[in-house]
Design a protein that fits this description.
- The protein is α+β, with helices and mostly antiparallel strands.
- It has one domain.
- Helices cover 37% and strands 19% of the residues.
- The chain is built from 3 helices and 2 strands.
- A two-stranded antiparallel ribbon has the order 1-2.
- The longest helix has 19 residues.
- The chain is elongated.
């Protein structure tokens, strides 16, 4: 089974499975250092999901509206009805 793209986007909400950001900095003394850090959480997953919905709206030619009930009602969503 192919995993739905919205479910993969939800993984970004977990900092352990989010994105790794690499950054090279040049400091005033001329030294250059590279470091990496991982980001996740709703600050990452919410904009990703908004982008997915915007692409879906654009492809359909109309807005889909409030999609949360669809996602939680879909059995593949893994929704158990508990919090």
């Amino acid at each position: 089974m192919i995993e739905p793209v919205w479910r993969r986007a939800g993984r970004a909400a977990d900092p352990n499975t989010g994105y790794i950001i690499g950054e090279t900095q040049t400091f005033p003394d001329g030294s250059v250092k590279y470091s990496e850090y991982r980001i996740g959480g709703t600050s990452l997953s919410s904009p990703i999901m908004a982008g997915i919905m915007a692409l879906a709206d654009q492809a359909a030619g109309h807005p889909h509206g409030f999609a949360n009930p669809l996602f939680t009602a879909w059995p593949a969503a893994g929704h158990t009805g508990t919090s």
